[in-house]
Specification:
Blueprint lengths: L8 E2 L6 H10 L8 E2 L17 H12 L5 E5 L2 E5 L2 H17 E7 L2 E6 L8
């Protein structure tokens, strides 16, 4: 963190109300295991965030905002459209990610379940 940025600690507790009350009675600001938050402009999230995939997201946004020149050719009786390589690679990557993330499995003949896995540190 830069010296001019405030340092923010974070703690989150999940559970039943009674368990939370017990925690509050037995802990104080000094003996709680705080997590340091990474502050990043312009959003300043006040919860832990995984910024590992931010670069991939920014590449997608650049791809989305980019103008592509598409060629259309007459082939026989129909037209063929050439799709830029960047778009094809992006579509293939997305398809692979979805295949890795979602697994279909049949538990019984009349029951279908979906299984989601972690991809890049984010639970989806």
């Amino acid at each position: 963190m830069k010296n001019n940025q405030p340092k923010i600690k974070y703690f989150d507790l999940y559970g039943l109300r009674e368990e939370k009350y017990e925690f509050l009675e037995s802990h104080s600001v000094k003996n709680t295991e705080w997590k340091w938050l990474e502050l990043k402009r312009p959003y300043f999230w006040f919860v832990p965030k995984d910024f590992e995939l931010e670069e991939k997201y920014n590449k997608f946004m650049n791809l989305k905002n980019k103008e592509f020149k598409v060629k259309m050719r007459l082939v026989g009786n129909s037209y063929a459209v050439s799709i830029p390589k960047e778009i094809v690679l992006f579509m293939n990557t997305q398809k692979e990610m979805m295949n890795d993330m979602v697994r279909l499995c049949f538990e019984e003949m009349d029951k279908l379940s979906l299984s989601f896995e972690r991809v890049g540190g984010i639970k989806r």
